[in-house]
Amino acid sequence: MKYITHISRIFVGVLFIISGFIKLNDPLGFSYKLQEYFSAEVLNITFLEPYALIISVFVVVFEVILGVFLLIGYKPKFTVYSLLAMIVFFTFLTFYSAYFDKVKDCGCFGDALKLTPWESFTKDVILLVLILILVLGLRHIKPLFTKLPTTVIALLSFIVSLWFGYHVLMHLPAIDFRAYAIGKNIPEQMVIPEDAPKPVLEYTWTFNVNGEEKEFVTNGSYPEVEGDYVGVETKEIDEGYVPPIQDFSITSDDEDLTTYFLEKDKLVLIAMYNIGTSEADGVAKLKAFTDEALQKGYTVIGLTSSYIDLQNEVKQDYNLNFDFYLCDEKVVKTIVRANPGIVILEKGTVVNKAHWNDIEDLKLEGREIVSVNENKNKPEEKEVLSFDDLALHETEYEKNLYIASEYYLNVLKIPDSILLKLVPEDHKEFGLYYDTTGPDHKLGKTSFFYETTELIFEKVVSENNDDFYMPSILLASFADGEYAEGFLDKLELIIKSDTIRFCESITGKEFTRENPIKYYSEEYKCKVE
Question: How far apart are the C-alpha atoms of 413 and 397, rounded to whole Å?
Fold first, then answer.
């Protein structure tokens, strides 16, 4: 009995520490699981839902320290009977969810290891047997050290567990086991391979045969029975291959934009699963960060399950310059454990993410676009440039292009008058503009073309400057090649902001006969003749 007790002691202690630490690494995730158990559909103890996070922290800290207590032999009687009470409770939960098919994953090992309900119940039964062995062999559980070091270790385990739980709540889990971890590609994890195992279903058909109801079981084919069909029930035998990400989507009220946004080179995703319960201090930090991201060429969107009224309210209250799109609340909670949380993606791959407490630590790549209304270095020095080489440029457009480039290279704000003249009137002028990206051009190693283009479009999209409305549409009409996506993104935003104005503004214009303006005029049924 002594040796069996020692083996059980080590196995139970280590397992409780590992299981507890995995949940302690993500107490917010475990609190979501507890909310699922407390819901009306499962245990119907909804009054506990507001306290799920407090209960979560208490349970996982207690689980870890009980494992430590057991291994070092601290207060054996208290420890063993506490373990017994906890495993009885867990066994009841897992049996309930397995038998009644209520909760698909118990959350016993967080997101690190997914167990089916019956696997979870089996695991708890084995632990229950081992803990009962500890109860019977209680006299064999002795402290490993003398009283003082044993007490110190026990106290330290409590303090460290409590600190670690607080730390990950105020930041993010130290280890991210989820499908949205840094380095993971979201689209790739949504794909089901062609050779993946398919779901296996069992069909139970009921027929009335000669006045008696009989059942026939098939794998899906309709049974050849001489009788009247009554009904059919299906039972899943094997769920087959389930991709790591199943329900992720980015949608507007009338359109699925998931693929569109996941193909973006630089995307900042602001996750707020419930705007109404978001942290006010965190939302207040979003303005400066998202404005910087927009200046550096990022596409910024919000992802939420909240209704449009709350979306508009938070945008107005905090002067946010990005739009919100819809996603399932559970998915948004899974993406990042913060409300709000920040995720940076490149073509669907998560390259960084942060809790709102750590938003200042996020580094955004790319040169900051020089704002027309803001000059950080020399705000009033418009006359500092001499433009000595202006006479070398033959056409008026070349001269304007040269002036704009000098402002840009000297990190000075580009005047509105020059920006307007930078918009090409024809393909020849656009060719001169695009040539600034060439390796032999003095601007070839800069982002002049992309950043000034962004400035022109933002004048309409963000600042509602009427002077730039038609020039922006004219600029978008040249969309072609590798830069086309950025042009069209802005054009779509301009069109959607006021479709009637777009249609009226392009009426009679020559460029309506060519794509992309032709495509959008037909898409929005503009009468352009």
Answer: 19
Say if residue 193 is preceded by a cis peptide, omega within 30 of 0: no
Q: Cα separation of 494 and 379, whole Å?
A: 29
Phi, psi of 185 (to 5 degrees): -100, 120
**Two structure tokens written together for 392:** 């070398």
- Comparing C-alpha atoms, which of 469, 433, 460 is closest to residue 448? 433
The whole-angstrom separation of Cα 163 and Cα 261 is 38
Adjacent-strand bridge partners of 213? 208
Which of 83, 73, 80 shows the shortest CA–CA distance to 20? Answer: 83
Distance CA 75, CA 10 (A): 16
Residues 6+ apart with CB under 8 A from 286: 270, 318, 320, 340, 356, 359
Q: Which helix (H) or strand (E) holds 269?
A: strand 267-271
pTM tops 0.85, yes or no: no
Amino acid, single-letter form, for residue 445: K
Kindly state the tokens that stand for 339. 């409300």
Residue type, 517: I
The amino acid that residue 492 corresponds to is E
Between 448-461 and 396-409, two packed helices, what is the crossing angle to 10 degrees?
A: 100
For residue 185, list its beta bridge partners.
349
Query: Would you state the structure tokens that stand for residue 441, as one six-digit string?
Result: 């051009």
Distant-in-sequence contacts of 324-328, Cβ < 8 A, 24+ apart: 324/272, 324/275, 325/250, 325/251, 325/252, 325/257, 325/261, 325/301, 326/249, 326/250, 326/251, 326/252, 326/253, 327/248, 327/249, 327/250, 327/251, 327/303, 328/247, 328/249
Query: Cα separations (Å) of 208 from 89, 205, 235, 512?
Result: 45, 10, 21, 67
- Print burial letters for 477-507: b (CB count within 10 Å at least 16), e (below 16): bbbeeeeeebbebbbebbbeeeeeebbebbe
From first to last of its 529 residues, what are the pLDDT tens digits of the chain?
Answer: 888 999 999 999 999 999 999 999 999 999 998 998 888 888 889 999 999 999 999 999 999 999 999 999 999 999 999 999 999 988 988 888 888 877 777 667 767 787 887 888 999 999 999 999 999 999 999 999 999 999 999 999 999 999 999 999 999 999 999 999 999 999 999 999 988 998 889 999 999 998 899 999 998 888 988 889 999 999 888 888 889 999 999 998 878 999 999 999 899 999 999 999 999 999 999 999 998 888 888 899 999 999 999 999 999 999 998 999 999 999 999 999 999 999 999 999 999 999 999 999 998 876 554 433 343 333 333 344 545 555 555 688 888 888 888 888 877 778 888 889 999 998 899 889 888 888 888 888 888 888 899 889 888 888 888 899 999 999 888 887 666 777 888 888 888 888 889 898 888 888 888 888 888 888 888 876 6
